[in-house]
Design brief:
The protein is mainly α. 75% of the residues lie in helices and 0% in strands. Helix 1 crosses helix 9, helix 8 crosses helix 18 and helix 18 runs antiparallel to helix 20. The termini are far apart. It is found in: Cell membrane.
């Protein structure tokens, strides 16, 4: 047994061990399984949020983009660098507070509570589930490819093992297991990326020497306009690259649930610092290694394998194992969050809301676990069919999620006049806009990224429709007061908590004393 396989076996056992440990200490009710009992501190919140948003894209798509387009890829990195602190600053504290006031335990249920109508959830849940399933499919495929490359196993068998480990600890410990394993995996991510970056730069003789060698191949690789200069002046496409991993991921339900699980609202401030530090250490390295791979492993048939092949070339055997664990960590930390959130949407926001209402706490958790297992099996079958392009799948799914949900989540806590009609129309308009732009090839035809088209559609729609219908569909006074309260830093007034509408907040958590200080 070589050292790479030994590292991976130990790594998988640690993840399963965390899942088993968490299953013993966490509560068995819905809030415990789906939100970890709302008790996460700043470090776990930040690293869970960031590792979840990184995904296998960072070791596949990012490296491939750097390999094929050079410094143009850094537009994506620039957007991603500020994404964590932006998300926590704009949504973190306010969403944590509002979700408590409204008694929300799922990110889609939160939207229905803020925009009271059964149609809010009926529209939001299918859109989110559709996009997140394709996103998790890309992660499962990436996980299988990484494991197969390291171990030499057949891809189908590697997929079964990778998915089995993810499902194992997710089923055992729920959100708390996902959060703690993501925290551990975030640390492995940083160590692995820094190690491979340093080794890569040493191999090419340093950053300056690497730049000179890239320039000798193609000077355009050293510009931010693409390998053929095709993106020069294409600001609509560049804006999309900046937005998809910055503003865009404020609309990702599996990321935003991190805000709801914080110990108290004030956790968001320190979490923003941890998130920024993680991003600075981790994100640029993936794109730089992808670029330098042109010098180390030229003529790759599949550019998305660039970082994998560089690691095999420049690292000693004992280090390859750690880096491969880091690659698996990037993939699995996103896959587990997506799988848990997709299962939550299917079981709680669709089945529990529209089919089998008034489920007991234990029955609800069982349905969630069963749904996660079913989705994993479906994902396994589809991943075995070898769908192409991890990068393309991730960008499409995340673009639609961002376009559909960013205005709804942001306006939920910042604009008290945003109403139900505006939110529902916005989600539909954003989805239609992003999907239509993608199908029509707006990037090539108009020079505007599909993400930008979708965001413009959804933002304009929520503003126009909310203003046009404010008299016939006003925001309920109780919801308006709750939104006003989120702008204040201080204890949650008892009158607002006690005055909740039980038809909207059926799962209100208790107000703990430490929450009252937030």
């Amino acid at each position: 047994m070589n050292i790479e396989i030994t590292f991976l076996i130990v790594y998988f056992l640690v993840l399963l061990g965390i899942g088993a440990w968490v299953s013993r200490i966490s509560s068995s009710d819905r809030e415990g399984y789906l939100l970890g009992g709302r008790r996460l501190g700043p470090a776990v919140t930040a690293l869970r949020l960031q590792s979840t948003s990184m995904s296998g894209y960072m070791f596949l798509g990012a490296g491939g983009l750097g390999y094929s387009q050079g410094y143009y890829s850094m537009w994506y990195a620039l957007g991603d660098l500020g994404g964590g602190v932006l998300n926590l600053s704009v949504l973190g504290r306010r969403m944590r507070k509002l979700s408590q006031l409204l008694g929300s335990i799922t990110s889609i249920g939160y939207l229905e509570h803020r925009y009271p109508s059964v149609w809010t959830r009926a529209v939001a849940a299918p859109i989110a589930l559709f996009c997140m399933f394709f996103y998790v499919l890309a992660q499962l495929l990436a996980g299988g490819q990484g494991l197969a490359m390291v171990t030499g196993l057949d891809l189908d068998l590697a997929l079964v093992i990778a998915i089995g480990v993810i499902v194992g600890y997710t089923l055992m410990g729920g959100y708390l297991a996902v959060a703690y394993t993501d925290f551990v995996q975030a640390i492995i991510l940083v160590i692995g990326m820094l190690w491979i970056l340093v080794a890569t730069l040493q191999h090419v003789g340093g950053l300056t020497a690497g730049h000179e060698a890239l320039g000798a191949i193609n000077e355009n690789l050293l510009t931010m306009w693409g390998a053929e200069g095709e993106f020069a002046g294409q600001w609509g496409i560049i804006l999309g690259a900046l937005l998809v991993f910055s503003i865009g991921y404020m609309g990702w339900p599996h990321v935003n649930v991190s805000h709801m699980s914080m110990r108290r609202p004030s956790v968001a401030r320190r979490a923003g610092l941890y998130a920024t530090g993680f991003n600075l250490l981790f994100i640029p390295g993936a794109y730089l290694v992808g670029m330098m791979a042109l010098l180390i492993v030229p003529n790759l048939e599949d550019p998305e394998m660039a970082i994998f092949r560089v690691a095999e070339t420049v690292l000693p055997a004992y280090a390859v194992g750690l880096v491969m664990a880091a690659i698996m960590a990037a993939i699995m930390s996103t896959a587990d969050a997506l799988l848990l959130q997709a299962g939550t949407i299917a079981s709680q926001d669709l089945w529990g809301r529209f089919v089998q209402k008034n489920m007991s706490e234990k029955a609800s958790v069982r349905v969630s676990r069963l749904t996660i297992l079913v989705l994993a099996v479906i994902g396994l079958v589809l991943a075995m069919a070898r769908p192409p392009g991890v990068f393309d799948i991730v960008v499409f799914a995340t673009s639609v999620l961002g376009a559909a949900f960013v205005p709804a989540y942001v306006c939920a806590v910042w604009w008290k006049s945003a109403n139900t009609a505006g939110a529902i129309s916005s989600m539909l308009a954003g989805t239609a806009g992003a999907v239509s732009a993608e199908l029509m090839g707006s990037a090539d035809a108009l020079g505007v990224d599909a993400m930008v088209v979708g965001i413009l559609c959804s933002t304009a729609t929520i503003v126009v429709v909310s203003l046009a219908t404010r008299r016939i569909a006003p925001v309920p006074e109780r919801v308006r007061r709750a939104v006003e309260e989120t702008s204040r830093v201080g204890p949650v007034p008892a009158r607002l908590v006690l005055g909740e509408d039980p038809t909207l907040a059926t799962q209100r958590p208790s107000v703990e004393s430490e929450d009252a200080r937030g």
